[in-house]
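User: Before I run my own analysis I want an independent prediction to cross-check against. Here's the chain; please return only the structure tokens and, at the end, one sentence I can use as a sanity check.
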Amino acid sequence: MQQRSPVQIAQLYGSVASALVGGVVAAYAVAESRVDDFSFSDDGLTSVVITPQWAGATAAVVAAVGVALLHRWGRGGRASVFAAVGALVIALPAFVPVSASISVTLNAMGAGTFLAAAAYPTKSHRAAQIALALGVTATTLYFGAADLWRDRVARWSLTLPGDTFPVPSTVPVWILLAATLLVAGVASVARSGQETDDVDTRLVTLGVVLPLAFTALYARLGSTSTSHGSWVTAVVIAVAVTVALAWRLPQHDARFILAGLAIGAVSICSISFSSDWTWAVPAVGAALALGVAVGWKRPMPQLGLGLLAVTTLSGLLDAALTTVAYVFVLPLALGLAVASCMPVAVGAVASGSVLPFTLTLFSVSATFLDPVSQEFGWSTAPLEEHGPAAVTTPIPLTVLAATATIVVAMTTIHLKRVRTAVVT
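Assistant: Structure tokens:
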């Protein structure tokens, strides 16, 4: 048997490692940039550009445009430059004083650029696309696990005159350096295997329009001071826009975009882990790996989304059942759904993966619908502790709306498959 060359080994396994690391770093940077007092600001545009919604939307738009440009150019060397520039922008606060309010946008732009570079070598590479999607989505959903190994530095946008309150880099510089070497190196090696493609404008449109539409809905109807009716209206419009844009795509691309919408809806409940029960994190990893293994061998996207719906609906139950669902069922469902949907176009995997932090009506706005939360300016959603984890659950209305969103995604996937079969 002929021995593989180092370049072939890098192409086979390097793209998987690069995609996973790139997805984790980008999603972690976006989540870590959250300003602690964003819900207090009511200063026009400033009250929007310091929110998690703005951070997620900015990163998503930059990633969508970056992926389109890289595949139009067809050169891995430029993807390597994207990785270096993205990492440098994320790390900038470590070298230059940057205020919390400015760092939100700056960090998001760096994260989006870095994600585009990591996505570049994943064309027609199923394992790498699964790694990228899981790196982004799992990091977003289980970001609370980061408290096990780091003490988060407070980020305040409201300061005294003359006090900019500079913030550190969202990702440690040494981690960024290692990640950049990996992502840039793999992108440069993948250069010979990539060809210039005609960019699917429908995917670019979706990747840009959806984040902007979500941000407009957040600002107008779904901010932290929203009413129940306005929030539900925002969710309905967001789901309708997503379905409409996804419907125009090829079947497999549309399926993963809708799966991303469902994954975003399951973030209606958030989970964190106790330092005394660190075994729960490996349990999540094992369930995630099992889901991927099953989905790889026998794709069952509808079953994966169905398990996501069950997990979301568990937010109506007591703490014990909700914790079991989010520690064991959710990672299984996530791995199964993502693995079952691949492979897709690179633009689809990038834009679909970021939906959980691009659509924050579920993960952020819903937690402020409690009247006490709106009065005091911070979330008072109950923190239910049970064994290894703590689950934050919002009011039942939001849980039902999130579950309905997943059902709509499942139904649309089925109708799209039937329509495609009839046409062909």
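Sanity check: The beta strands are 270-273, 383-386, 389-392.
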